């Protein structure tokens, strides 16, 4: 929240510089990486015939890249592979901010916007490592619990990487910023925290009876348990 | 999940027709509206100089429109007000899908993609009604608990509406779709449900002691309680 350097260690480009509420902006890699890594789903923006499209995708950061995987036949991935300009946004909702006035209601959130062009990851070993990263970053240990991708499955999966070179973060945290004149109003004010939480696991209908929950799932339930 | 009619009752336009996993697609207004209404945050896509941008925004559906509010000085709202083509995506994460193979890991989700051009909502009465809708759709009763917007605050808030005319929904639900050959593997398979849940309310530091939680907040905690 303090650095004004970009993800690449330079001042932020004009394209990612946060204009609204710049006090909430951050450009340092630690903040950007933390928000990317905590996100389950990203929203990918791309353009077709001047029309913007936004679709949810799964992502994984590995070092200085954000990796995406998907169907090579899909419209989004054809554009990604072709190196079209894209935007990736990751947003966490941390709470509802409830002020004494309607105007000072808000949302506590952490978000990252990343601009760039993707590069395809094509060699099988790198693709395999990328797919392992998708699984392991969320469920450490899961990769070893399941069958690895077959050559056919690997061919059916496109992987691209977007270098983290032009990115900005925005964070709103803390209580409402009520007007001094409103502090005497009787309304309750504060924050109602929100977080994504796990519920009770639902075994597949065809799961062999007695199959225990593995360490990977138990670990996520402990971290995200409701 | 069954209708192939668009949000406007027509077959879906080629721009919003779901190409990947079309069995997961829906175009009926009830499905689209339900996903829009359950969403706390939307992602807005727009284009500047050929570069797509995606930013998180708050939205509220009222009838056949999705309303957005924000700063009239912001880049996104200047484009919205000017009638530029935009895309709005709302995504809910419902669970992690854990198959016996890496390939059959997935996410259960509900998402809507809405294409269109916004129209500004400028007269003060309509703006006021829109702001009330933002508050009330999430926290019924909250509008009456707090100070309404002043004329200055109303001027500082831009409101636009995007007609729901070109929209599609995509829903993945249920257990993993494992390969028949993998059913004998010892890996646990199933779904780990995920949902946005409230935590304990955090009163503002300057809240008068003894101020009770209001019905609006208690109601949301009951619906979304962790």
What labels would you give this structure?
homodimer, 226 residues, alpha+beta, Pnp Oxidase, Chain A, seven-stranded antiparallel beta sheet, four-stranded antiparallel beta sheet, 6 helices, globular
Q: Could you explain the architecture of this structure?
A:
2 copies of one chain form a homodimer. Chain A has one domain (22-178, 190-195): Pnp Oxidase, Chain A (Roll), CATH 2.30.110. Chain A is α+β, with helices and mostly antiparallel strands and 226 residues long. The longest helix of chain A is centred in the middle third of the chain and has 15 residues, at 124-138. The radius of gyration of chain A is 21 Å and the shape is globular. Chain A is built from 6 helices and 12 strands. In chain A, the strands form 2 sheets. In chain A, strands 1, 2, 3, 6, 7, 10 and 11 form a 7-stranded antiparallel β-sheet that branches. Chains A and B meet through strand 2, strand 3, strand 6, strand 7 and helix 3 of A and strand 2, strand 3, strand 6, strand 7 and helix 3 of B. Strand 11 of chain A pairs antiparallel with strand 12 of chain B, so a sheet runs across the interface.
């Amino acid at each position: 929240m303090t650095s004004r350097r970009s993800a690449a260690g330079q001042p932020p480009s004009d394209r990612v510089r946060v204009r609204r509420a710049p006090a909430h902006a951050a450009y340092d890699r630690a903040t950007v990486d933390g928000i990317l890594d905590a996100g389950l789903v990203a929203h990918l923006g791309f353009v077709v015939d001047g029309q913007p499209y936004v679709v949810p995708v799964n992502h994984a950061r590995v070092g200085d890249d954000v990796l995406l995987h998907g169907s090579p036949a899909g419209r989004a991935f054809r554009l990604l592979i072709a190196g079209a300009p894209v935007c990736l946004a990751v947003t966490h909702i941390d709470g509802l901010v409830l002020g004494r006035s309607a105007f000072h209601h808000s949302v506590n959130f952490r978000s990252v916007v990343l601009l760039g062009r993707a590069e395809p990851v094509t060699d099988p070993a790198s693709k395999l490592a990328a797919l392992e990263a998708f699984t392991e970053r969320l469920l450490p240990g899961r990769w070893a619990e399941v069958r690895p991708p077959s050559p056919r499955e690997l061919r059916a999966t496109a992987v691209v990487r977007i270098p983290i070179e032009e990115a900005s973060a925005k964070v709103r945290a803390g209580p409402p910023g009520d007007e001094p004149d409103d502090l005497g109003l009787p309304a309750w004010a504060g924050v109602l925290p929100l977080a994504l939480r796990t519920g009770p696991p639902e075994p597949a209908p065809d799961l062999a009876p007695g199959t225990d929950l593995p360490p990977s799932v138990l670990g996520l339930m402990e971290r995200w348990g409701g």
